[in-house]
Amino acid sequence: MDLNKLCPEIPKVELHAHLNGSLSRATMLQLKRYYADVGITDTSDAFLDEFQIGAGDTRNLSDCFQVFNIAHRLTRTPEALAMATTLTLKEFQEDGCCYIELRSTPRETPFMTCRQYIETIAEAMRNNAHLPIKSRLIVSINRTSSIKEAESIAELAISFHKQYPDIIVGIELSGDPNVGRFEDFIPALTSARFAGLKVTLHCGEVCNPQEVMEMIQFKPDRIGHGVCIHPDFGGTEETWQALCKSQIPVEICLTSNINTKSTPDYNSHHFKEFYKANVPVIICTDDKGVFSTSLSQEYRICADVFDLQPAQLAKLALNAVDHIFAEEERKAIKEKILNFINKNSLENV
Ligand SMILES: [Zn+2]
Fold first, then answer.
1. If you measure from the C-alpha of residue 348 to the centroid of ligand 1, how many angstroms do you get, rounded to a whole number?
2. Does the annotation count 205 as an active-site position?
3. What phi and psi, each to the nearest 5 degrees, are found at residue 193?
4. Higher pLDDT, 317 or 25
5. CATH of the domain at 240
6. Above pLDDT 70, what percent of the chain?
7. Which residue of 35, 50, 216, 277 could cross-link 42, Cys pair, CB 3.0 to 4.6 Å?
8. Rg for the chain (alpha carbons), in Å?
9. pLDDT tens digits, residue range 234-245?
């Protein structure tokens, strides 16, 4: 089967997508129209052109975190946030995604509290439960926040997990990896885990072997990126062996790593080493709006750069399902992908 056809058509799962970073230009324009209609001053105008970061962009990883402020200006009211959620789910669905875990940091705005922020996304997901795409929410803790703030977000996540067990499935740590220490967030993450939430951590985005070891020893359900873990990429033999032994699945975001300069180019991306060593990997987008990509495009790039055959790519999509947080959805999604594999004779790897 031709890759041009395979990548969009194969049922895929997206496990690492930040809501605000995933807003497409079309969604942002629709949100701007909404602000005009309701008469709320739109302060994002001068900044919209700065939202997308391409490969040749000179901005680095830290600069990229500033870019999110632009999206944040467009998701200030509950109505806009609900619209952003719905439109983003539909875009992923159109791209052949059948299950998504969106993540977002609860934010207080002049129009809503942190509690309303999570509630709005959860309600929008429930209202879209009839769509073929199944959606869940991972609540994010930003590592630049204080321990007190992190603890209150964990408490919120726990109470919402009880209220919306069908929607809120996990908690994660993200934000500028040059700021804050992982160990400070362990109590908040641990309380969430005890309450039944799954945990994923942005791990090894910058060279910090001690923190990578602490994270692996914490045994999260998944990690994101994992750039500086292999010794050739800023990790050590110890971090690499620990990851291989742990078999913790890694959310791989190719274009994001290139565009933030975490990785110099696609050919030297650490995916190659992980795949060779049988570390479980899941192809994800991270911020499809900011990095002008899509999940099917990431699959396509992966196949092209690492010379994967259609059957191998299909196997990647299938294996990713083992790592979704909504365990009750796994069987049906696997069946969907297996049907696609059988129909297109992609069984042989
Ligand atoms: Zn991320």
1. 33
2. yes
3. -65, -40
4. 317
5. 3.20.20.140
6. 93
7. 35
8. 19
9. 999 999 999 999
Q: Say if 310 falls within a structural domain.
A: no
CA–centroid distance, 257 to ligand 1, in Å, is: 10
Q: How far is the CA of 173 from the centre of ligand 1 (A)?
A: 9
State how far the Cα of 46 lies from the Cα of 36, in Å rounded to an integer: 15
Bridge-partner residues for 104, per DSSP?
A: 139
Which of 266, 200, 262, 202 minimizes the C-alpha distance to 233? 262
Q: Looking at the predicted structure, is the pLDDT value of residue 188 above 70?
A: yes
Cα 286 to ligand 1 centre (Å): 5
341 inside domain = no
**Torsion (CA) 138, 143, 144, 146 in degrees, nearest 10:** 90
| CA distances to 106, 190, 232, 253, 286 from 204, in Å | 24, 20, 13, 13, 15
In angstroms, rounded to a whole number, what is the distance separating the alpha carbons of residues 67 and 80? 18
DSSP state of 289: T
Q: Which residue, 250, 68, 221, is CA-closest to 138?
A: 221
- How many other CB atoms are there within 10 angstroms of residue 314's CB atom? 24
Give domain status of residue 336, yes or no: no
Q: Is residue 31 part of a domain?
A: yes
Question: Cα(295)–Cα(289) distance, rounded to whole angstroms?
Answer: 11
Distance 322 CA to ligand 1 centre (A): 20
Domain range for 103: 11-302
pLDDT score, position 89: 98
Structure tokens at 250: 């890694």
Neighbours of ion ligand 1 (CB under 5 A): 286
Determine which one of 14, 205, 273, 298 is catalytic.
205
Looking at the structure of the chain, the number of domains it has is 1
Distance of CA 84 from the midpoint of ligand 1 (Å): 18
**Tokens linked to 183:** 């160990």
Q: How far is the CA of 285 from the centre of ligand 1 (A)?
A: 8
Token code pair at residue 301: 């790039």
